[in-house]
Amino acid sequence: MEMKNGVFVKAAVAAIIIFAIALLFGYYVESQSYAYTEKQIAELNEGMESALLFSLFVQTHNQSESMCVVLKDQLDDAAQNTYNIYGALEESKSTSIFNQYDILRKKYFLANMRFYLMLRSYVQECDDNLEPVLFFYSTYNSCPECVAQGKVLDEVRAECSNVRAYAFPADTEDISMIKSFKAYYGIVGVPTIVINDEKHEGLVNKAEIKELVGC
Amino acid sequence: MSLQIRGEPRPLVTILAFILVFAVIAASISLFGYFWVMLIPNIFLVILTITLLVAYFDTKEKNVQPLDKLPMLSVIIPAYNVKSTVLDTIAAINASVYPGELEIIVVDDGSTDGTREILQNAEGVRVILKEKNAGKAAAVNTGVKMAKGEVVACVDSDSYPVPNAFKYAVSALLRDEKNGAATCFIRVANPNNMLRKIQDIEYLTGFGFSQITTKFIDAIFVAPGPTTIFRKKVLLDVGGFDEQNITEDLEIAWRLKKYGYKIDYSPDAVVYTDVPGDLKSLYRQRMRWYRGKLFNIRKYQDMLFNKKYGVFGTFILPFSFSAELSGTVLSFSFLYLVLNQLIWTIRYLYANFVLGSLFIDMRSMMLVGMPMLAIGFVLVLPWFLTVYLSHRIGNKKVGVHDLIATTLFLMFYGSVISLFYCISLFKEINRSDYRWK
What we know:
Radius of gyration of chain B: 24 Å
Oligomer: heterodimer
Helix content of chain B: 55-70%
Structural class of chain A: alpha+beta
C-alpha cells in the first residue's frame, strides 16, 4: 500500500507540472502575438508623433504648401497600419484565453482617436477635401453585422481616394477620454458610422456611404 | 426480452435536465470562455492518464510467470444465435496449451438460428440446452453450476483465446489467495475496416495498458465479457452473475471488490474478439456499456469515495465517472458552439443582404487559436505516450499504414465516444428501456 501511495504522490506532482507547463506555454504563445500587436501599436504612435511634429511645424512656420504633401503621406501610411492592426487585434482577441487584449484594444482606441484628431487638424490646416469616416464596432464573435459593415467600408475605402476610415472598438470602456469621445458622438449600439459629425446607426450600404462622403 | 425494469420513462424530467445542463454550460462559456469550460472536465482525464502512466513505470514485473501444473479449468461459453462464430471459439479453446484438465461447456440460451444443431456435432464439448432465452448472465450461471473445474473461464461465443491464454490467466489468478478473478488482454480479432482498426487501438489502451496499470494500483474495475477467469467457489460465494444487469461483466467485478476479492491480470493471456464494424452496432454496444456503468454506479454508490474499497473506491470509480461528465460537457459545448455559429451566420448573411453586399466572406467565428492549441498540445502528450506504450504492450508496431487509424483515434474517436457517453447519460435519466439485440 505504501508503494501505491507513492504512485499518487508522483502522479500529483507530474499532473501539476504538466498543467503548469501547458498553461505557461499557452500564456507564452498568447504573449508573443500580444507583444507583436503591441509593437505595431507602438510604431503607430511613433509615426503619429512625427506627424504631429510636422503639423506643428506647418502651423508655426506657415509652410502649408510644401509640408502638406509630406504630412498627407505620413497620415496615409498610418492609415494603412491601423487597418492592419485592426484585423490582427480582433482575430487575436477572439481566440485569446488569458484576456490580455482588453488593454491593447484601449491603446488601439486611443491611438486611433489621436490619429483621427490629427487628420481633422490636417484637413483644416491644409484645406484638403479628405473625408474621415468613423466606424464603431465590437468583437467579431458578438457582432456579425460589424464584420459585414467593415467589409463594405473596406470597399468604399478602396474605391474613394478621399475617404479615411477609423475603426473604434465600441465595447471598450474605462478610460474617461474614450467615454467622452463615445458620448460626444452618442454611440449606443454597433455598428455605427459617423460621417461629417453625423451619426448613422445600424447598417449603411455602399451607395449611401458614397453619397455621404461625396464620392 | 427486456432487462432492468426501472419504472416508467420520464421524458419531462429528461427534457428539463437537458435544458438545465445546456443553460449551465452556455452560461459558463459566455462567462469564462469556451476554453476554460472545456478544460475543467478534462483535468480529471489528464490526472487519470498521468496516474496510470506513473503506475506503469512503477510496475516492475508486468508479466506473469506461468505455473507448470494448473487445476482443472471449465470453460463456459454462453451461446445465443451465434452459429457463424461459436465453432471458431470452440476450435480456439480446443487448441489451448493448458497444463491441466480442461472441459468446455456450451450453454445454448434458447437459440433459434440453428446454433443448437451445429452444437450437436461439435466434438469434445458438453452442451447444455436451455429452452427459454434468459440472457447471457443466466446462461453463464447455469454453466458454472455444471462445471467440474476448480477454476472457470467465461468466454463469449465470438471470442478466440490464443493457445497460451488460459495458462497465463489461471497462473495470474492463482498467484494471490485473495484473487477472485483474472482478466485477459482482449484484442480485436478482425481489424479489417477503419472503424475496427480504430477500436483495435482503443482495445490496446483499454485492455492492455489500463489493465496492467489498474492492476498495479489494485483497482481493475471490469471483468471483460470476452474472457475472464474466476475461482468457481468465489463466483458461487458472491452469488454468480447478476441476471438483471446489462453489463454483468462490470457488475461482477465491482461485486468481487465489494466482497474484498482482488482481480489480477496477465498481458500474455491474449483473447481476440469480434468488434462492431459499423457505427450503428458500435452505438448499440456502447449504449449497453455506458448505461450499464451508470446503472452500476448508482447500484454501488456506497463504494464511491469509500476508503474501505481502497484505490478502487476513492480514485478509479469517481475518476472513471468523470469520463461521462467530460463527454457530456464536451457534447453540450459543441452543441452550444454549433448553435452560436448558426445564429452568427444567419445574422451575418442577413446583414450582407441588407447591405446589398455581393461579396460574402464566410469567415466563421474564431474558436481555436494558437494559445489554445499550445495548451492542448501539452495536455495530450501523456495520452500520446499512453497510446505508444499500449502498442508496445501489444507488440504492435505503429506502421505507416496504421497512421490514418491512429490519427483518427487520437483526433476524432474521442468526440464520438463523448457523444455516446452523453447520450447514455440522458437515456439513463429517461429510464429508456434497454433491450438486448
